[in-house]
Amino acid sequence: MAMKPVLWLVAGAACLALAGCEKTAVEAPDAKNVCFHIGFPKDQPPKFNVIKKDVPSLEYCAAHLDALRIKFLSIGSPRKEIVGVYNGTFLWSTPRGIRISKHFEGPAMPFLTKAPDGRLVIPSAFEVPRDRNFSEPQTLPDNLPEKK
Question: How much is the pTM?
Answer without folding.
Answer: 0.69
